[in-house]
Specification:
homodimer; Arc Repressor Mutant, subunit A; mainly alpha; 6 helices
Chain lengths: 124, 124
DNA sequence: CAGGATCCTTAGAGATACTG
DNA sequence: CAGTATCTCTAAGGATCCTG
């Protein structure tokens, strides 16, 4: 049985160190995901694809403006798929792209941990 | 062989859905972690405990003010441990608490994924 | 060395009203 | 229904100087 240093190997294997350099492009993406609403929208869509109005209700407290801009940047990042039906009234469905689902795989454990430990942290 | 819906079960098991309600305390923690510098400081400390000056250099681009306030909120959240030696000149060491290391366990995979896919996303 | 205290600037974010 | 267009404003963030 081989025991290795968990912390160091994690960083090495995950090649995380580059993030700390100012030029790393991941900083941009990190900002998008953590733009206050980014995580929540991704989590909502990870549960199931939804229409605009549904999302607005699912992600409590988000304004129309923020939902719009959040969805736009996530779509540009290739994480969210936007499908508009040219009907009247219009119907637009949002869902995660394969890339977005990949992200959800590592994002959900984080959000889950936070949700479970939030009360402990914030000390209600 | 039993096949289950990965997405739904993930959400259920992780009890992530509560995050979407406006009153959920996890939103506060989520904000702290994703406060532009929060993730980076946590990643830096996940690699190894560091002194103030080291952190300042490790997390490229962070200002003194932001490093100070980020460390303060993370300390209040119980994620970061601050150890000050009463020497002259002063020496202060920062490291992750057990809780912070737990968080790192789920945070590093996310950051790692983003780092590896950032160029694909941002489309350099 | 490790911060506090200040001042200043913007982008993020809210509210409201309007439209194809 | 699914947004866009404005307007406004706070608070995150940056730069600089100061100190035990």
């Amino acid at each position: 049985m081989t025991v290795i240093d968990t912390r160091v190997s994690l960083l090495d294997e995950l090649m995380v160190d580059g993030v700390l350099s100012a030029a790393c492009p991941s900083r941009v993406v990190l900002d998008h995901i953590s733009s206050k609403w980014g995580v929540l929208v991704l989590v909502a869509l990870a549960e199931r694809g939804q229409r605009w109005g549904e999302l607005r209700r699912t992600v409590e407290g988000i304004s129309e403006k923020m939902l719009a801009s959040t969805l736009r940047t996530l779509e540009q990042d290739g994480l969210v798929l936007r499908e508009a039906q040219p009907t009247i009234p219009p119907r637009v469905d949002y869902s995660l792209t394969p890339l977005g689902q990949e992200l959800a795989t590592v994002l959900l454990p984080l959000v889950g941990w936070v949700a479970r430990n939030a009360s402990r942290i914030v000390g209600d």
